[in-house]
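Two records follow; treat each independently.
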Amino acid sequence: MTLVEINFDGLVGPSHNYAGLSLGNLASASHGGDPSYPRAAALQGLDKMRHNLALGLVQGFFAPLPRPNDGFTAALGVLDAGDPAQVRLRAAAWSASAMWTANAATVSPAPDTADGRCHLTAANLVTMPHRSHEWPDTVRQLRLAFAATAHFAVHDAVPACFGDEGAANHMRMAAHHAAPGIELFVYGRPGGRFPARQHEQASRAVARLHGLDPARTLFIEQSGEAIAAGAFHNDVVAVANERVLFTHEAAFADPEGTYTAIRAALPEAEIVVVPTSAVSLADAIKSYLFNGQLLTLPGGEMGLVIPLEAWETPSVRGWLDTMLASNGPIRRVLPVDVRQSMANGGGPACLRLRVVADPATIDPRFLLDPARIDTLSAVIAAHWPEQIDPADIGTDTLARTVRAARGALLDAAGLGELA
């Protein structure tokens, strides 16, 4: 069995809109009430998938979840479209935020687990109402994609009393993807300016469910300064790939203690720290430098897929140019255009869930090749709304359009079970 890293990107759904529902996500808040462009957003996401596929990487996708979720609004008794509180709840039922599949689940590959299977635990996402109703549909999709129970175990979300935001607060390091690794769970402390979305006990529960070796499992406190500055998930200020941790100086509450623990558990670890003096925390978060995809390319070198916003930020560009001129482990920087996602607070890494597995063990309908991307692109061009204005949210006309668009996609992808 050949284990490789597969990135599963969330396809941006036809209800993609800017309702500003995510407290602590500065980009989401700043664009709240703006018109959105679902067709452009989905095509940008597919272009990123096509870009990574062309690099020689294995690429998968997840379909949008059913929206609007009428069961969510019915359970809350939402009836009055003119009540401001109910308007926000109605918008929560329309959210396309499941496109950020870094929050779909936490994944532990087979080399790390007690039973030798890849384990996936869906994230409950309870801190934000607009995301709290995602996980049951996410589990349905995960259990379809990873149905081979000899190779995978898919767990329901941990109880809602402990907030879990999935792989956005989890990193894995190893000599190479198929080797036993160490798993890093990053959690926040409550009481700051913005909610700490990842609870320590949720992380510990996931580690137990996955049968991880306690000696190779680290629980790391996120910096309160980073959360207050808008790093609502750890992947906004740190990312890991194989032996490399790429992090901002202010990512962790105890940076030196964190680095020491990582090196003790994985002696070959390389830690690349960007100092505040070179890139401020504000610039790191606004540009989403660390929300890039740190990838091992087929030739063995590492590449960093970043949003154009990072490439266009002078302090970030200056640091990247210096890094590329050095002999560090990251050898290529690859900018991509995901501006529609970025405006709602999610960069290239938010859009993908990393799974180390043998592609032959995964339902092939979730894996992409150029022809399949062309098929999905054609469906989006034909069916996704070009523009959604805030006043459109909640209308019957848009609901019919959104449901028909998703139905056309599921038909084209052969995923009728998800209808």
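The next record belongs to a different protein.
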Amino acid sequence: MTEHVPGVRSAAIGVFVGVGSRDEAPTLNGASHFLEHLLFKGTPTRSAMDISSALDAVGGEFNAYTAREYTCYHARVLDEDLPMAVDVLGDMLTASLITPEDVEAEREVILDEIAMHDDDPDDVVHNLFAAHAWAGSPLARPIAGTAESIRALTRAQVNRYYRGRYTAPAMTVAVAGNVQHADVVRLVKKAFARNDFLADVDAVPLPPRLATSPRATKPGDIRTTRPFEQVNLVLGMRGLTRSDQRRYALGVLNAAFGGGSSSRLFQEVRERRGLAYSVYSFATSYSDAGMVGVSVGSLPTKSGEVLEVVRDELARVVSSGLTQDELERGRGQMRGGLVLSLEDTGSRMTRLGEVELFQDRLLSLDEVLARLDAVTLEDVHTLAADLFNRPETLAVVGPEN
């Protein structure tokens, strides 16, 4: 997938592998993220230092991330350096060594990363929320794995996961910038031809992940004690899938309800009552699942009142929807955020890759803006009345009472 962006001298490339933490068996929890780290450690022709220095030497940006439904390896370089970036990524994706020494060294790095997230109240409460809301599903497990699962993973398991999952049909290469499609295809064919990676001439891309309805979520409360200064809570309900056509109305609703400093939640919880420093609503969507809700952190003495106010505001938007001014602000926030993000080649590249993985087709910018413009007060009110009336899942993390 490519997009020519006039007037820029850069190119952003991403290799999207259609495998993430939700594709792991329980005994492999964290394998996708572990593998993401290991692919930077070296190939038969490049050491870890060679991989890093190749991009550093031209001022390029180079990184990767693991999500629940895919893993992405990406770079952003001057247009003249794109052939090098494609070759490095192709080498990493098709010919990484996954040596026992690298596995043991990176195991310690990942354990440190997990410990770092365990010290972040926001990460802890969202992981707790997911664990309860999607209990029994791979979506419930943390993307990075747990300390126990990472210690138990062997080199053989990770290497087998690499060889079995990182196949040509599972990969989408997306490039945006000062590029021509035919040139990119030629570069990719050459870079990914190592180890007969493209030998299966009959291979076809895996179809996009699509679902007609979201999977069920588990309601109820879950609480855990941590020696934090604040109480952090997430209150949520079952939401929409990535492909649900109501996602445009949800975007407007989410922006107006809790997406910025002018939003209803921010104004009521922070500005008027001074109950919390950070409060926001969220809408998380996957191919066959979704959650909507509110995240907030407050002093322990104020947590009960914060939760009561949040529930009151949810009830108010269910009963009366948004005002016209709120609708316009929410729509404007969505429109502006989308257009401004697409001034960046990296954002355009990410959009290409994610659409190929999760949608039937790529909508033009004008089509997306038209769908946002078509959202009405009735659309938002109907959606809020549906979503925010669903059974609640509440996760709370904080000090002992």
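Discussion point: The mean pLDDT is 96. How would you locate this feature using only the token line?
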